[in-house]
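Researcher: Structure prediction, please.
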Amino acid sequence: MPQENVWTIKRCLEWTRDYLASKGDDHSRLSAEWLLSAATGKDRTGLYMSYDEPLDPAELNLMHGFVARRAKGEPLQYISGKTSFRFIEVACAPGVLIPRPETELLVDAALEGIDAAAAAPELRVLEVGCGTGCVSCAIASERPGTRVTATDISPAAAGLARNNRDALGLTDAVDIVECDLASGVSEGLMGTFAVLVSNPPYIPDEVMRQLPSEVADFEPELALAGGVDGLDFYRRLLDLAPRALMPGGMFAVELHEDCLGAAADLARAQGGWKSVEVRRDLTGRTRFLVAVREGELPMAEPEHLPEGRIEPCDQSDHSPEVIEDAASVLRAGGVVVMPTDSVYGIGAAAIPGNPGHRRIFDIKRRDFAQTLPLLVADPEELDRLAADVPSWARHLAERLWPGALTLVVRASGAVPPEFCREDGTVALRVPDSPLVRALAREVGPLAVTSANTHGMPAPAASDDIERRIAEAADLTLAAGPTPAGEASTIVDVTSAEPRIVRQGAIPADVIEALVQA
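Model: Predicted structure follows.
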């Protein structure tokens, strides 16, 4: 690296980018940013805000070593010693498989299994082949109270997983066992796990021979190679699953896209599974097998509303005091459980930077990547919040709003970006609830979803609201049963023809008849 003049962040970034590009790095800009962030301790935004800041000798020395290693093809995660995974950061080290973004969706599947078993006396998860521990630590951090047992046959992996667990403050939640498969797991725990999750070695031999050098030359073959058909380790997991899982428990495993069909056939041939499902990753490739054991999970005893911040009200005849109370909570960034015409919802004001938006997902124990529908006061809001609405879609709104119809539309510039989906759409509804519409007139659009733990039934009456949900919200408006007791029908109106996304309180034939009219 040339040493003339002063090496500012800008100069070092540009030189590193060009040098790595000359060495065949197809993402040299990203590599340069990653390495500079590791050397200086600044995030990407910090780098660009400090373009003219010179690197000190220690930082320059680090960059010399980092660039030399990257030029030889070493993965960035090994060089920097860390990577992000969902909402946590984990240490990475040579000899241990690097966490991949697609594996974050494996955690989503595991969380579904945990939520479904929420009534179990003790929630337990078994991860086989934990590597860095990213999956186990993500599960434990996103579902406090869950006990995770994680195994790995590699001493390096088990040691790194323990370090990551301790650094994240999860020592009491995650138990790391160095062993083959589950041979070191207490026999007394077998049959108690709500979820068995694994990202095992799954690359078929033929594909192993075609791996890019960045993977083949640096990452451990033990964590990659899955045998001739990629299913050697999977077969062992499939044998373990019936013994490890409780009745109704979930088996979630990541596999190579070419192997999922055969893997599903093996599970079905084994028997004892209530369902066997193949799921796709964010690129559309088949990536995961999710199977649920036969048998019933423990059922929760009905819980009723606790005493506390609960406001009795009437949906049709609400008092101004109730509206002002709830509106003040929402304006302050709070979260309110409210009755709608379909089911009880939990919502926040749809304003930029509202902390209540994130709290809704935390309370529901749901992935923050989801997008919430907006409840609005009047049908005229369609003109303000939506763009390019077809005439037949306007006709649907005129006939069925207020009511249990949700329209997915192209968002106008009036919708804050954090409430839009990645494709630029937003879901809108005018509920047949004078209470909610009055709130929306006071506060503006409300981001609302069903007031339940993700995967559990949506409450149709105030007595059905989970105690945990009511306690976590800032205010609960209790108005007894909702009129419909059923979720809304969702219709995507962004194309030439309507597409029913979810059948709800309004039948599909009613939608079709109105569109044709």
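Model: The two ends are 71 Å apart (CA to CA).
Researcher: Thanks, that helps.
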